[in-house]
Amino acid sequence: MRRTPLLIAVGAMALVPLLAACGDDDTTTTPDPTSPPSDGPTLVVGAKDDLTFDEDAYEVEAGDVTFIYRNEGSVAHTLLIKDVDGFKLSVGREDKGDVDLDPGTYELYCDIAGHEAAGMVAELTVS
């Protein structure tokens, strides 16, 4: 009795989950199902391959702001708010996060080496 075809089939089936895990570089953060969604405003920010955001300036109302960070190209980026600790989004494709913001003017930036210096900054006005 030949067992070779059976061993090949079993081996191939064992590889399927490993190969499936390798295919997608989406760094989207999965929301914590135990935390309630934000009732505050939502701001969508796009990141471009030319090391810019999709806008030079953004406006949003104060409170618990939900940021949706989308990559409009293929270069990896981050999104931080200067002088706001504990908030950082990273994109392969899309990431989402909440942060409580008081009224004022803030600076959005990407902290990947060279991106901020190249101009990947934007003004955020919170009213």
SSE topology sketch:
Blueprint: H1 4-22, E1 42-47, E2 57-60, E3 63-71, E4 77-81, E5 88-91, E6 94-101, E7 104-109, E8 121-126
Parallel strand pairs: 1-3, 2-8
Antiparallel strand pairs: 3-6, 4-5, 4-7, 7-8
Q: Which key features would you list for this structure?
A:
single chain, about 130 residues, mainly beta, Immunoglobulin-like, three-stranded mixed β-sheet, about 15% helix
Describe this structure in words.
With 127 residues, the protein is mainly beta. The protein has a domain at 42-126: Immunoglobulin-like (Sandwich), CATH 2.60.40. It has one helix and eight strands; from the N terminus they run αββββββββ. The chain has one helix at residues 4-22; strands spanning 42-47, 57-60, 63-71, 77-81, 88-91, 94-101, 104-109, 121-126. The strands form two sheets. Strands 2-8-7-4-5 form a five-stranded mixed β-sheet, with no helix packed on it. It has a three-stranded mixed β-sheet with strand order 1-3-6, with no helix packed on it. A hairpin with a 6-residue loop joins strand 4 and strand 5. Mean pLDDT is 80; it is low at 6-36.
Mean pLDDT: 80
> What is the number of strand segments?
8
Strand order of the largest sheet: 2-8-7-4-5
The CATH topology of one domain: Immunoglobulin-like
Which regions contain 5 or more consecutive residues with pLDDT less than 50? 6-36
Please compute the radius of gyration using only Cα atoms: 20 Å
> What is the correct CATH architecture of one domain?
Sandwich
CATH superfamily of one domain: Cupredoxins -  blue copper proteins
Structural class: mainly beta
Principal-axis shape: globular
